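ping. complex inputs:
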Amino acid sequence: VDEARARLRDTFVAVRSRTLALIEPLEVEDLVVQSMPDASPARWHLAHTTWFFESFVLFPFAPGFSPFDPAFGLLFNSYYHALGERWRRPDRGLLSRPTVRRVLEYRRATDERVEALIADARDEDWPRLAERITLGLEHEEQHQELLLMDVKHLLGLNPLGPAYRPECTRPPRAAPPVQLAPLRWIEGPVGAVQIGAAGEAFAFDNEGPRHTTWLQPYALAHRLVSVGEYLAFVEDGGYRRPELWLSDGWATVEREGWEAPLYWRREQGRWSVFSLDGWGPLDATEPVAHVSYFEADAYARWAEARLPTEAEWEALAAGAPVRGNLLESGALHPRPASAEAGGLAQLFGDVWEHTRSAYSPYPGYRPPPGALGEYNGKFMSGQQVLRGGSALTPAAHVRASYRNFFHPHQRWAMQGLRLARDA
Amino acid sequence: VDEARARLRDTFVAVRSRTLALIEPLEVEDLVVQSMPDASPARWHLAHTTWFFESFVLFPFAPGFSPFDPAFGLLFNSYYHALGERWRRPDRGLLSRPTVRRVLEYRRATDERVEALIADARDEDWPRLAERITLGLEHEEQHQELLLMDVKHLLGLNPLGPAYRPECTRPPRAAPPVQLAPLRWIEGPVGAVQIGAAGEAFAFDNEGPRHTTWLQPYALAHRLVSVGEYLAFVEDGGYRRPELWLSDGWATVEREGWEAPLYWRREQGRWSVFSLDGWGPLDATEPVAHVSYFEADAYARWAEARLPTEAEWEALAAGAPVRGNLLESGALHPRPASAEAGGLAQLFGDVWEHTRSAYSPYPGYRPPPGALGEYNGKFMSGQQVLRGGSALTPAAHVRASYRNFFHPHQRWAMQGLRLARDA
Amino acid sequence: VDEARARLRDTFVAVRSRTLALIEPLEVEDLVVQSMPDASPARWHLAHTTWFFESFVLFPFAPGFSPFDPAFGLLFNSYYHALGERWRRPDRGLLSRPTVRRVLEYRRATDERVEALIADARDEDWPRLAERITLGLEHEEQHQELLLMDVKHLLGLNPLGPAYRPECTRPPRAAPPVQLAPLRWIEGPVGAVQIGAAGEAFAFDNEGPRHTTWLQPYALAHRLVSVGEYLAFVEDGGYRRPELWLSDGWATVEREGWEAPLYWRREQGRWSVFSLDGWGPLDATEPVAHVSYFEADAYARWAEARLPTEAEWEALAAGAPVRGNLLESGALHPRPASAEAGGLAQLFGDVWEHTRSAYSPYPGYRPPPGALGEYNGKFMSGQQVLRGGSALTPAAHVRASYRNFFHPHQRWAMQGLRLARDA
Amino acid sequence: VDEARARLRDTFVAVRSRTLALIEPLEVEDLVVQSMPDASPARWHLAHTTWFFESFVLFPFAPGFSPFDPAFGLLFNSYYHALGERWRRPDRGLLSRPTVRRVLEYRRATDERVEALIADARDEDWPRLAERITLGLEHEEQHQELLLMDVKHLLGLNPLGPAYRPECTRPPRAAPPVQLAPLRWIEGPVGAVQIGAAGEAFAFDNEGPRHTTWLQPYALAHRLVSVGEYLAFVEDGGYRRPELWLSDGWATVEREGWEAPLYWRREQGRWSVFSLDGWGPLDATEPVAHVSYFEADAYARWAEARLPTEAEWEALAAGAPVRGNLLESGALHPRPASAEAGGLAQLFGDVWEHTRSAYSPYPGYRPPPGALGEYNGKFMSGQQVLRGGSALTPAAHVRASYRNFFHPHQRWAMQGLRLARDA
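pong. complex structure:
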């Protein structure tokens, strides 16, 4: 047990520290503003992840616990009805207090208490405590990605075009291949197939139970759709042809005036794209990113293919190692597929891959009891599943069974697509 | 062929006449008003179904065809982008012209031309023509149900509480059973199961292709959830307990101020309900109706059960005869389950049954080419599947493989639910 | 008194009959639809004016009065809070019942009761009763104009372009003058001037008390601004130059996409205009109509002039006879100024003339007690005064002291303008 | 001239420094957030007032001027269409950059250039330059008040209830009088009266031309309406009685759910109020503040009085010295009327006083040419005039002829009221 405690404490320190490292390049001003209702101020992420440890770790396990500030429950509860009133989500940007300084104190004080608890908890509490802390860290990793998504959105709308990090701190980029390999199609298993999380390793409740599903013959493209391929769709009038779109998708195109992916901008006939390094020219060999489900679906129709189901994706990804352009690469942006021969490229990292599967409960799914039952299950309507992680996802956070989900019109996540077809 | 032509002509006359019979109890004023964006004026249904025959039957098949009124294309096209501009759907109620009289002339003239075409079409055109006319009639039947849904909504919001039909014309109602049988659970087939439309009979494109799916052990309740059972949920605070609801569902409850199903009203502590016969007291033994997916899902959670998937439903309904309280019964309202022993009751008719299945394409699904490809496929996002037909559905229109679909917040269709559980 | 009773009864019959005459060219469908929140269905006007007699004449004066239908109070009360709940104004078009037929019965029954009351009322009640009936008739005349405005709006948005009346029933139009006379400027009185209603004749409460105001030297244009003059403003980029507009006006231009007056349409470079006779070419010599306060103000700025104050207008109109192109002419549309020499043309009729005066209480103004106090006083914020009546105003209804009022963005009234300048 | 230059430079330094002093108690976070569309982030005020000097002083007068940052024109232009594109007003809070630090550099650099220009400008430019700088300083003073209004709104909605300044820095408050004097009525001049700015001293364009107006006999209350008096209105159901309200006012009450002035809160039956010193108990003797025109008008009706016209107010204020509880007192909050005998109390300072006068041009008014013509004139619709300054207004900024204006529903300015009546 002691070793387990030491290991968990190290992980705790590492994950919590990375959140702080992520905000290092930012100004106080960047931590406060909410750029749209779907996004949150970075400061809110800092505080909310801390509140999560307070509510689900310290409150139930730390003897004599009292909250750092009783008002923070109202302010930093995201959506757990069972834990009381919440400040309205679209109004998170209306709060100038608590200051960033105070929120950092909140983090520090809470970290100390969690670390003390790791050291001091009774042995009989340890298994459940360890499980909760692990959940808190997985939760923190989700918010690390959200924080970067939200910061990108905030900086991206600013006419000054500020970059997230100074030039000197960016990782050097490998020379891109001269040309992307043409699509190859990789066939997947057929008939009764098992999917879903199993075994000892951490997984969210929505990844299980492991169960049988039935697959018809199919194939997946060996790599992601590239910017160059997507540009051909744009230039072929893709955003002006209703017959390519789902009905709700076309309504969104018209209402929002979409003409290209989020973060693309055309000026005097030349396209540029916003990344966390600022504005730059489009690179045709990179995977396309920041396209909604509606756009991915329309592109697939135009390309005479379709999106994969989540089961098709998982059946092929199941054996593959979790390796790729993830948060640890430091790129913070998708990269061109390498030319390596054989197999599926870019399965993990780069961009979350759209699937045609609505986010629904697996057969036999039951959310856990209590407030944590609100974590995943209550979002199972109106959203689509995405798979595989992105360049903003911590490597330890993703796996073949991982189910991310967004509404079909949302596109501020680093979302892209891989084509599928019936085989 | 001649007999086939005679048979189709008779069906054509019968279906088209029934639409006119449905509006007989109404005043001109009732045919003009649009009570909400989801609904259409009855006059619009009369004209749109006629435009469908003009566009998809007369235009391609009738030599020298010219439209009855060229402006009607703009006004009565519902959503076929491939066929040009359309009048905005939420503004259908802004049009006082063409008058009802003129629309009835439009129907008459178009009917004559279709009937002439049935008689005169070249034999080599006949198979495709017959297929199109059949589609037009299936389409008309869908709008017969929509017309009644929309009229009910219109009359239901009127403070005068007008009934759709005079008392004297209502079918007498059988005495209700003293008490409903308690729920029995009927198990369905397990493992690889085939679902979807197959064979010669008409089916919409979205019902196919027939394909294999995999079912875990499950059971369905032998009858629908009753008003009395749903009332217990209401009285247990069902509409005030966020933990029972999907997240988007709870947001809808709060935004819309829902406290009960649509058409329920509480005054001085007593509930009444609006039907096409006007306002009356709640009958605890009837199936509950006009509940959205969100409400059905919350009820099921409260009842410690769940909604069936569409495959589970179809697997059990596949062999059953299409019999039940459908449009032809004249009840226009769900009826209590009869006490007959054994088997699944109320599978067809009474109310459309909510499923937990999002409306998605079946494996291998491809919409037909051209404007008719817009009929079903483009709605495959954000909606849920319902099965089994209602008391407003023509009997010839429904079958085990039939997939109806609505957004999860909608409830002006005659929707109810049957519980399911893992076996 | 008997003669007074006979006279009032004749007026009552005449005014009430004219309302019915106004709807004669319409279809039932035209009477039911509400084309926008500011407008009401014609049927509503028919019923509301009747409810006014029920509530303010029969209820207080007719012994043993009971309402025709108790539910009509809810449906046809416009805005009198003192008289109970009201059906929401923007939802007047959601009601298909009561039918037009029933509303006409309501009118007939109420007319009979009012006529009986005129005959039978006690002499001591007569003065107050006569005052109330007169108010009811003035109220009815206001709704005659509103009814025509609302019908015009309804027919004007219909892509079929239906005319209000058949060609054969239109009054022949005099040949227009070859050219309009250039603007002449007529100076008004200076210094302390009396305005406001005085004396015996009927006037609304908001026209008094008569009081002194102070005028600086000024002049009014001898005629209204013409379509040709306004077109020059449009073609000079009037709707694209923010510097010509009030701030709220420019926001309206951008939000609504205004490019010309309401009912103007440009197709292939040619302008046409909708009148109650349908669509036709612009006539440059007619007064411009259906311009909001914002547009009138912007035009005046462009023309290096300004709008008159209401006191300036009244001071010059005070002596003039109420004569002009009013409802009785049958034109239902403004007409070119006649070439007659001298004096102010088009003071009454043609179009309501915008003034730069906000609609405020006159010094010493007090609304009457009770529900009738809500008639005028409570609208004294955010609106502008218009003067002089239009081609839709009954001649007996308007006078020099009459104050009409609309919000500065509204333009479905027959509104135009006359320029003013400092002298 | 040299002395004039020195004097203006001193004023320039003093006014600009006071803006910085006002933000001293705030955190960076407080300077960035926009709490509602009507308000602006404090940082925006800092930058916009600086941009004003750049655009209207440096650009036209400083030889070889180039802007500090060319992008700032887009970001910090408030509403001058003549000066190019502007960032949408409701989105001012979406910008995290430029940082506060950078904006303070912008101020510093601009101040240096203006001071240099004061020293170096050619004598022939001096009069016009001095006029422009003076206008820039008056403009800055307006934004000093706006900044405090906006900061109050921001802090006031925060559940943490933060105070603007620490307790220790607040000026001590004189003991309030035991009881307010009952209202006395002071009569004003009657007949032809001159109002409007005249003479050499600075005044905004909208304060002139000086002109004659005509007053009927009237009297003003000798002091402002107090919190205690207003509370009686609230407790008499003032916010639940539509008959007391203007029609648009009542619609606002219902839409916004108003139950009391802005910044009042009732908890467990006790009222508290938010000031720049945080939350505290209501003080019945203070003037009521933060009531909209609609509320002031309803209160006056309830009190059987009315609001003054702006001419009535100015006619009585014309001779009085500009003295009172203004920004320099440091109170930042209205104070009870002192018991001093005779005359009108609280004319200047404490709260802006509502008038029943719509904000309209005076006879003969003409806005100046060019972009500065947009300063005042284009807001002359839909707003009401307020007079007398508030506890947030710099003393040098207000005078008897000063016309402030807000929309009738707005109440985040420090607005109160004084009753008037016909004499």
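The longest strand of chain D covers residues 352-358.
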